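If you are new to this repository, start here. Below is one unmodified record pulled from the training split, so you can see the exact layout before writing a loader.
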Amino acid sequence: MKKLLAALPVLLASTLAGPTAATAQVSAPRPGIWQGQVGTRRVVLTLRGDSSTLALPESGQPPARLTTLRTPGDSLVAIAKYGKPALRARFTDKGRTLSGTLSEYSKVLPVVLRPVAAVQPLRLAQAPKLPLPYRAEDVQFNSAGDSIRFAGTLTHPPGQGRVPAVLILSGTGPQTRNGAPGPIGHQPFEVLADYLTRRGFAVLRTDDRGVGRTTGRYDQATTADFARDALAAVRYLRQRPDIDPTRVGLLGHSEGGAAAVMAAASSDVAFVISLAGLLTPGLQALLFQNAELVRTAALPARDQQRFDELNGRMFRTAYQYATSPELEAQLRATYQTWKTQDDARLLADKVTNDHFRFPLESYLRQATGPWYRYHIRFDPAPYLARVKVPVLALNGDRDLLVDYHGLAAAAAALRQAGNRDVTTQVLPGLNHLLQPCRTCLPNEYSDLDTTVDPAVLRTVGDWLARHTR
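And here is the target side for that same chain:
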């Protein structure tokens, strides 16, 4: 879900003083350790004469030695040994803060550094505050048919009675129980669990198949498998003496929303909550998200048109042959037909020095795998028609991966099948992770301070309170 950049930064002057060539070191101004944070990454500048360094600890790289250190007026000019990222900063608040922007490739991100006695741990604004006013328990349980041992965390509010329970289902890609690929970055499911448990709900979140302490192979699973995993977790929760078996429901993010609907269609769960959930057919979802990512990419208009055309042809071929052993051959033939036509257009238009590249081989590896074959043919309509329990579905209007317009069709399908307790809401300014965003591209997720917008937490908590009395 998130990928941190490994490049080491370069510190430059404020906007009033441009970069210069490397010069001899001078004594460090305001010596000591200055630390700030950009989203989920720390920025650490150590000013110590000739041994001054700059570090982004979450990048996994060692601190970079500075080759230049100057202070024109209140500005800081510090150039590190590696890379082109830059901090344009100025000492403010009588020298107690260093305020500016961190530039990484095309990103320009605000950052404020302050003096610290020693490098401080990463602090995310919405991370659970200790001590926890509830019980957090490591749990394990088995699936019914495929011998997978699931591991997760169950948080339970204080008290001895049976309480309602929420099972969190993750979206596409192997994720830990906290909703992230690993320990670095935003941990949205931990934030959700903390908020809901403080409001009186037990919450179970698990490592995906093949992730953390859960066994199995993620790369061989489909959305149908994830729905069966959800039902195994529901059975486990219902067997616990501290959980009310009649008030166990599902909360799914992204593809987890589809898995929640599939599970609810075949089981009497108490409720379904979909957050940025996949409630549209798989082919439609793939066409939308790739068109959005192409639209927002820094590409010439001609190359955007080429990607859209080629993606459309490849996706429709994959849909047509998803269950056929001829899938790879048909995809190669589709690409070659497009390439021949595209080459002819380039020749006719006298285009030279063309940099367009389609990752054919990596796409073929993905498209011929079990998950993609299932996903592109996925149709939520038959499952929605069988969901009779209360449903809450929330989507952000800046989501580039799931089209929020699908909410209306999903709600109509639910109501047409007789479900009278359906609530949908489009939330302005939120991305796929339900964060307030600027570009809203996936590569921005880790640069944002918010893990889950507080309005989303309140909406979910209030809805659950009304539906689990």
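Two things worth knowing about this chain: Confidence is low (pLDDT under 50) at residues 1-26. The CA atoms of residues 154 and 204 lie 4 Å apart.
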